[in-house]
Amino acid sequence: MIYSRKHNKIVDYLGTKQHLAVDLDISAVPGGGIRIRSGQQRFYERFLQFRFPRLLTGEADVTEWYDDAQEKYRISVQVNNPLLGTIFRYAGSFQAYFIDTGKQPIPLDVKPLREERRE
């Protein structure tokens, strides 16, 4: 995930080889949460680059917040396609922990198989 000056947005690179770049619109929601909505999606594989037509994508709407009473993060996800409507929906919770990468290296199984500069 990077801030793209070219797109003036946060861009998330998805997949183990980071083939898919997705523009993200991020905003605060009442109660201290964060809302993330996906935008334009682009495919990258070496010299092949193209934008996915909107009709062939899923548009994600994600809300995350911390639930003090449950001591967990909460998440709500809905993915819609312009033609098919809702294609995925999820609501749940998770707990997070942080790894001090100054004391131990980033585990290889959480890093992408390929990293490359695209801007």
Account of the 3D structure:
The chain has 119 residues and is an all-beta fold. The protein has one domain (2-110). Helix content is 0%, strand content 55%. It has no helices and 8 strands. The protein has strands at 2-4, 9-14, 20-29, 33-45, 48-51, 59-67, 72-81, 85-94. Strands 1, 2, 3, 4, 5, 6, 7 and 8 form an 8-stranded antiparallel beta sheet that branches. A hairpin with a 5-residue loop joins β2 and β3. The protein is globular and about 50 Å long. It starts with a strand and ends in a 25-residue tail after the last strand. 3% of the residues are buried. The model has no long low-confidence stretch (mean pLDDT 90). Residues 1-94 form the DUF4166 domain. This is DUF4166 domain-containing protein.
Protein structure class: mainly beta
The succession of helices and strands, N to C, reads EEEEEEEE
Beta-strand content bin: over 45%
How big is the Rg?
A: 16 Å
Low-confidence stretches: none
- What average pLDDT do the residues reach? 90
Helix share bin: under 10%
Number of strands: 8
Helical stretch tally: 0
Principal-axes geometry comes out as globular
Most strands sheet: 8 strands, antiparallel
Give the total of domains.
1
**Alpha-carbon distance between the two ends:** 13 Å
InterPro entries: DUF4166 (IPR025311)
Protein name: DUF4166 domain-containing protein
Pfam families: DUF4166
